[in-house]
Design brief:
The complex is a heterodimer. Chain A is mostly helical. Chain A contains 25 helices and 5 strands. About 6% of the residues of chain B have low confidence. Classes of the chains: A mainly alpha, B alpha/beta.
Chain lengths: 576, 275
């Protein structure tokens, strides 16, 4: 009986009384392994589906396959697991920002199945974002099972994301950097250590089950100074491609929402359009890793016009797949588009300056991937480490840094928020730890209400009021209706000072005559950021909190500052 | 009246019964009903250590154009100022977040399945998750509007039972209604239950608020429950025991809710009562 009891309440296990950091590392191993396993499962599912449908590719009617996949994927998300469509990374960041990383259990498997249907049938999307949300949800639910606190849960969400990315790309550093740079947004040792461990666990699981292979191996590149100089132009091109892709994705999302049809029909329309493009340009279908490998090897034999056309087609296909309701991520399409952009750029260089001995086109393809990833995610470190790890090409590190840095900067200049964060920023949901918005979001009006105010009535004489003032240590006095108890206005001592020092007024002035009735009031459900905005705009130091015409208490800037400091210290402390 | 009760409005005859019940409860307990009229069939509730997705059945979205009007009418008829909840945050565009800083929440026995399952003996899985995670008690309404005129607290000695008892005291104090305590005597003696009260230092409250303490000694729970007044608000704790005991012997809460048709106010493990 005792054994079962202790199993039911893991928070009571002896191990939980050990060091918190050690505990987090132990749980990170579990999370990293589970999310690594989820990545392997999705990879295998995609391989199986690719083999099933490969023999059908030569039939004319095959263009409906992505439509069927996208529709099934959408139906699965909407009707079976009842989750919203999309790739899910913004949902993870939102949950980390606002709800301490709480994620639904169903998210740990739903996107794996839906994205397998979308990508496996030929949709232009990647498996990375779905595994990120799966890994993150696994981390969140393991944290819930062990009754861990918010900060520990957020770290485990990061561990899940890191384990998933590490596993799917066999790239532990990229997984770790992605989790910290994109998901958590906080570089602290308390996060870094467990996330690093989870990355290792995820990578190991992948290596055990799928072998230790570099996804896109290539021969050695001999990079000259001219090539490094030329990288500036490539960075501009990849930034342009990133912005085009970001805007097209949002445009497709907007026009698809205007269509009065269920989501699964919209997804099918998008899928069908992708299928049609795929009939003529099959390179746009699926995750496209085979094409990436070909391009990096320098074996992609098409000319400039075709490469340019495929680049545009892949951007459009990705926007159609994801913008119209398909399920998947943008990592893989970014890699393909980046490669194509790099290749296009190389062909242009070769055309314009045929006498210059440029490095092999595969190098530009590789650099293009970094440019696209950095531009779309506005996460240069993720771009750099990912490309170095998945290509094993450390010799390209210098141009890689240049392309990533310039692409990120240009994209940030034109589109201030990264693709994953665009909606979150628009709705004020991106709350990084230690920022003003995050501190305020963790406080609410109800916990700041000061209730030690003495209420007075409008028919009270000034003389009676003065005797109340003597007892009170506050400057504000709410005025209530004698019969109904409704809030009528407020008296601020500064406003009535002239009456207080004039004894003639004591028996002739009623409070109803001198109270301020044009008072800005606060509802306990109001956002604290809005309350502060009101205070600043009206130069107020206190505001009354009123519900249903009844005065509840005061909210003051002094108390707010106290709580703000406390919350800031909690959020920025190094403890777990 | 700054305490709030969350009510998810269903614009149907059944939803009307539930809202009437919530309004009656709010007036007795002096809380403000806050009505949420869903625009989507799902929403999320983020609790301290859990996130619960509520998947409403389609009847919640029935005749959306009249929902606000119907809810306002019912509230105004009862002399309650209409107060509606408008979600500020969305996890996804069709997935609003409902905050959990309420003092009570009203649910039918099931809020995510077909209305045919609202009968006795069935509490939907979402309602269970809410009860388990919430820091507020959950009012599970009777299938039809039924005024309750007394309070019946089930007290078995667990931590949650103490919370239920304290909540009973609180409602008794606010509403001025009679409070009866019911204890299903199992293996323990009557004195041992009285000792539990003494140990918790609740003797004074017991003598102040409790009309009668019933010790039910019949063989079956059904027979015992006949003594509970049909027009009483039944307050009881849930999920106070560990999994194995619940698995083998069943949960008292489940047995009680499947036997009586009263309004139930269920106190979960995360609720802390203040008298």
């Amino acid at each position: 009986m005792r054994i079962f009891q202790s199993w039911r309440y893991p928070a009571n296990w002896t191990i939980f009384r050990l060091d918190d950091r050690l505990l987090l590392i132990l749980v990170a191993i579990i999370v990293g392994s589970c999310s690594g396993l989820a990545s392997v499962v999705l990879n295998r599912l995609l391989m199986v589906m690719f083999n099933w449908f490969h023999d059908l590719r030569h039939y004319w009617w095959i263009f409906v396959l992505p439509a069927i996949g996208a529709a099934l994927s959408s139906l699965f998300l909407e009707k079976v697991v009842k989750e919203g469509a999309g790739h899910g990374v913004p949902e993870v960041i939102y949950s980390v920002s606002r709800y301490g990383g709480l994620l639904r259990f169903r998210s740990s498997f739903s996107r794996l199945i839906s994205s397998a249907l979308t990508i496996g049938s030929g949709g232009s999307a990647g498996p990375e974002a779905p595994v990120v949300i799966s890994g993150a949800a696994i981390g969140s639910n393991i944290a819930k099972y062990f009754s861990l606190n918010d900060r520990q849960r957020i770290t485990l969400v990061g561990c899940g994301a890191a384990g998933a990315i590490s596993s799917i790309f066999n790239a532990p550093i990229a997984g770790m950097v992605f989790a910290i740079e994109v998901i958590i947004g906080e570089w602290k040792s308390v996060n870094i250590v467990p996330i690093a461990i989870a990355s290792v666990a995820g990578t190991e699981i992948s290596r055990i089950l799928q072998g230790n292979q570099i996804p896109f191996s290539h021969r050695l590149f001999n990079i000259s100074h001219m090539d490094i100089l030329a990288c500036v132009g490539l960075a501009v091109l990849t930034a342009a491609a990133s912005i085009l892709l970001t805007r097209l994705l949002r445009f497709m999302d907007k026009i698809s929402k205007k269509l009065p049809a269920p989501l699964w029909i919209r997804a099918a329309i998008g899928g069908c359009a992708v299928g049609l493009i795929g009939l003529f340009l099959p390179e746009v279908l699926g995750k496209g890793y085979h094409e990436v490998q070909t391009m990096i090897e320098g074996a992609f034999s098409q000319g400039l016009a075709i490469v340019g056309l495929v680049t545009i087609a892949k951007i459009v296909a990705t926007a159609l797949t994801l913008g119209w309701g398909g399920s998947g991520g943008i990592f893989a399409p970014c890699l393909v588009i980046g490669c194509l952009a790099g290749l296009t750029y190389h062909h242009c260089l070769a055309l314009l300056w045929p006498s210059v001995s440029w490095v092999n086109e595969g190098c530009f393809a590789l650099l293009g991937m970094a440019g696209l990833i950095s531009g779309m995610l506005q996460a240069p470190l993720t771009g750099i480490f990912l490309i170095v790890e998945i290509t094993g090409g450390y010799e390209v590190i210098l141009p890689l840094i240049i392309v990533s840095a310039i692409s990120t900067t240009l994209c940030h200049y034109i589109e201030p928020a990264a693709y994953y964060m665009k909606e979150l920023v628009e709705y004020g949901h991106l709350l990084r730890p230690g920022t003003d918005a995050r501190v305020l979001s963790d406080l609410n009006v109800s916990e700041l209400i000061e209730k030690d105010c003495i209420a007075v009535t409008q028919n009270m004489l000034l003389r009676d009021f003065i005797s109340i003032v003597k007892k009170s240590h506050r400057n504000y006095f709410p005025v209530e209706d004698e019969e109904t108890g409704h809030f009528m206005g407020i008296i601020h001592l500064d406003d009535i000072r002239q009456y207080l020092f004039n004894p003639v007024m004591y028996d002739t002035v009623f409070l109803g005559q001198i109270m301020n009735t044009r008072v800005e009031v606060v509802d306990p459900d109001d956002d604290l950021a809005d309350v502060i905005r009101k205070m600043d705009a009206n130069r107020l130091f206190s505001m009354p909190v009123v519900i249903n015409n009844r005065f509840i208490g005061l909210i003051s800037k002094g108390n707010l500052l106290d709580q703000y400091r406390r919350e800031l210290m909690v959020q920025t402390s190094q403890s777990v | 009246m700054n305490h709030q009760l969350l009510h998810i409005f269903r614009n149907s005859p059944l939803g009307r019964e539930t809202l009437l019940q919530s309004i009656y409860f709010s007036k007795q307990v002096k809380v403000t009903p806050v009505v949420y009229i869903p625009k989507f069939t799902k929403f999320l509730m983020y609790f301290e250590n859990d996130v619960v997705q509520i998947d409403l059945d389609d009847s919640y979205l029935m005749s959306q154009d009249t929902a606000l009007e119907h809810a306002t009418e019912l509230l105004e008829q009862a002399g309650v100022e209409p107060r509606f909840f408008d979600p500020k945050h969305y996890t996804a565009s069709t997935l609003p977040d409902i905050h959990t800083n309420f003092d009570y929440m009203s649910c039918p026995r099931s809020i995510s399945d077909l209305s045919s399952k609202i009968g006795l003996g069935y509490i939907g899985p979402r309602v269970r998750r809410i009860v388990k995670s919430a820091q507020f008690p959950v009012l599970i309404t009777s299938p039809v509007y039924k005024k309750w005129e007394s309070i019946a607290v089930f007290f078995g000695g667990s931590v949650n039972a103490f919370n239920a008892l304290k909540l009973g005291f609180r409602i008794c104090r606010i509403s001025g209604m009679l409070l009866d305590v019911f204890t299903l005597v199992e293996n323990k003696s009557q004195e041992s239950y009285e000792k539990l009260i003494t140990d918790e230092d609740l003797e004074k409250e017991m003598s102040r608020y409790v009309n009668k303490w019933h010790f039910l000694k019949n063989r079956t729970l059904g027979e015992n429950l006949y003594d509970v007044p049909h027009n009483a608000l039944v307050v009881l704790g849930a999920y106070g025991h560990h999994l194995l005991k619940t698995f083998v012997f069943g949960s008292k809460m489940e047995k009680i809710q499947s036997t009586i048709s009263n309004n139930l106010l269920i106190v979960g493990p995360n609720y802390t009562a203040v008298i």
